[in-house]
Amino acid sequence: MTDEEKLEMLAEAMDVDAGDLSMEDKLADNEAWDSLSMLAFMASVSSKCKKKITPGELSAAVTVRDALNLI
Questions:
Q1: CATH code for the domain in which residue 41 is found
Q2: Which residue range is the domain that position 7 belongs to?
């Protein structure tokens, strides 16, 4: 899976345009990044990538790149 595909998956979970996100953006600075988007992202990764991300792992992600590196 390419970085662009991963970014699109994250953007979809956050309900934002992928073009509005950059790899170095801090997740906490984006008001779209909340508990619901975290759950949506974890579910999307689980169903599309067959990989489980724990809430603790995702909570530790500081930047968009950190979140995408969990995939």
A1: 1.10.1200.10
A2: 3-69
Split into its structural domains, the chain has a count of 1
pLDDT tens track for 3-51: 999 999 999 999 999 999 999 999 999 999 999 999 999 999 999 999 9
Per-residue CA distances from 42 to 18, 46 (Å):
17, 6
Half-sphere exposure of 67 (CA within 13 A, CB side): 31
* pLDDT tens, position by position, 46-70: 999 999 999 999 999 999 999 999 9
Half-sphere exposure of 26 (CA within 13 A, CB side): 2
Q: Assess contact for 23 and 65: CB atoms under 8 A.
A: yes
